[in-house]
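SEQUENCE-TO-STRUCTURE ENTRY
===========================
Question of interest: how does this chain fold, as expressed in backbone structure tokens?
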Amino acid sequence: MKRLLFTFILAFTTFAAWSQIPDEDDIIRKTMDTSSPYYYTSLMMRYMNLDKLSIEDYHYLYYGFAYQDDYRPTAVNNALDELYAMLPSINVETADREQLENLILICKEVMRVDPFNFTALNMLTFAYGAMGDKAKEQAYYVNLHGIMETIKSSGDGRSERYPMHIIMFSHAVDLVSSMGMASQRAEIISRNVEFIPLVSARRMPDGKKIRGFYFDYSRIYRNKPDDVTFKKKRTWQFNGLKPREYK
């Protein structure tokens, strides 16, 4: 079986240099103000309609989702399990139109629970490209990298003081994987921050070596029911990296 997935992920698109640690008061105010360009209902509609968004738009879109009724980070995503089960059967060179259309439907079901799911966005990019719809292929590609850059711009991730901020656990390990780095199981550092150690230390462009990345996961727990525990047996895989568990 040919290995599917994600060879084009490494070619990161570059947005204008911009970084912003999420300011909760600012996000709430701007995403709930109907006169704001970042009013959430309009912003999400633009995202789903594949309209062109700025990096600022992605910032309010991603972090603003944590204040929406549809934000359920502890919810079971059955469509995602169905997607994972389907992936091994897909050959990137021989997938037929019916199979690709089914893949698209499943990915869109996944996004009902997690609109920013890396696997779904990546497979939508693949599916539309394989069907010859270059406009949608490019649009989903840009959306995927817009979300990636938003997370990366929220902190350098090299210390507990300046973690990258996520709204779903899977987004952290997926981001590390997308950079071509093999990671180990996450370590809880505090009530708000986890550390994802790398299998081996990596030298960054500035010459400094790092042994892993820090992520702020606090949004996930803010409205967590007492009887909910986190355990994700599978997540987005990149170039053969092993799945990740959260318990």
Summary: Confidence is low (pLDDT under 50) at residues 1-17, 225-247. The longest strand covers residues 193-203. The two ends are 31 Å apart (CA to CA).
